[in-house]
């Protein structure tokens, strides 16, 4: 087993583990966001009830509750933006994994000597190459989407 093949296999395992760890971290953060959403909803409901029920409260108190409610809405919007970014990252991870699998398949066909390749092998190689280009294009679209989103936030 040549050294370069072992190196490629090791790098593939390392990148797969990195993707797995990133996916776990993203999943944990999405769960945290979901819990925070629920907490913000409960706080918002309480503040809305206070604002509706306490008409005879001092104006300062109502202003304070309104400001708290607006702060909660802003916090929720920030979380929604973060959640959107994380969902894009999940899609990117899926495409990255798909690209690695296709790379491996393509490499196995390309390592085969041309004299030993059958017509089916050549067709399969072309199909994998086509799929690989599609995955790369999809990843490019996601990156452009993230860049446009980042620029619009500035």
TrEMBL record:
UniProtKB keywords: Coiled coil, Membrane, Monooxygenase, Oxidoreductase
GO MF annotation list: monooxygenase activity
Principal cellular location given in the protein's record: membrane
Compartments, as annotated in UniProt: Membrane
Domain spans labelled BMERB: 13-154
Coiled-coil region: 23-50, 95-139
Pfam families: bMERB_dom
InterPro entries with a match to the protein in the record: bMERB_dom, F-actin_Monoox_Mical
Protein's recorded name: MICA1 monooxygenase
Lineage of producing organism: Eukaryota, Metazoa, Chordata, Craniata, Vertebrata
Gene: Mical1
